[in-house]
Amino acid sequence: MPRFSANLGFLWTDRPLPDAIRAAHAAGFQAVECHWPYDTPAADVAAALSDTGLPMLGLNTVRGNPGENGLSALPGRADAARAAIDQAIFYGADIGAGAAHVMAGFAAGRAAHDTFISNLRYATDRAAEHGMTILIEPLNPYDAPGYFLSTSAQAADIIADIAAPNLKLMFDCYHLQIVEGDLTRRLEALMPIIGHIQFASVPARGEPDRGEVHYPHIFAHLDALGYAAPLGAEYRPQGESVEAGLGWLSPYI
Ligand SMILES: O=C(O)[C@H](O)C(=O)CO
Ligand SMILES: [Mg+2]
């Protein structure tokens, strides 16, 4: 049976993160993940995780200055990128998070590639000290025009190049349906390097029971493939509340 993680960067954003964790638990999610939890004391997050028994699957490195979307592929910004990586890993270790998503940023070209590789080597080394995984995630060019990492092939090449056992692909079905499609075969082919899977309807990025992707098929197929980790519900609720749109979850709890 598929299991699900509530992405608290998009779900229950109307309340403090510890309360969002409790809401996810009450709704039947079996894990949580977040984007940028850094304004909340790690002890408060850890307490909510302990109270509910939910694991925190991951968090993101900070985006950087206004208008930026990550730092790790930006030439000349290694100090800031590595400070962001350290922050994510230390905070993640304090709350028992399994992974940190290292955000590349808006950049292109050889220097950006080399910078990203160098910062990812740093990140995988630091993360390994805490038993954490580093994730990289291709983003679609409608939501993130100019983002350095935009295809699964580019991510796979980087993962092969670095060859660290704790560097994995964040396969966001929403982004990759827009960029590449063929989700069923692509999930199968990339399974050996996938570290986390996220989903949302396409194109609206809402609940998964609408739009151009038939997620019951994707969820059942992943289950049949033996993928047992919780799948990340990273969507913007389209209705009055998160709870009002959770009909898609009820067959699985
Ligand atoms: O936008 C996404 O899909 C991400 O997963 C994210 O981490 C924030 O950019
Ligand atoms: Mg995502």
UniProtKB/TrEMBL annotation:
The active site is at 137 (proton donor/acceptor), 234 (proton donor/acceptor). This is Hydroxypyruvate isomerase. Pfam families: AP_endonuc_2. SUPFAM superfamilies: Xylose isomerase-like. Keywords: Isomerase, Pyruvate. InterPro entries: HyI-like, Sugar_Epim/Isomerase, Xyl_isomerase-like_sf, Xyl_isomerase-like_TIM-brl. Its EC number is 5.3.1.22.
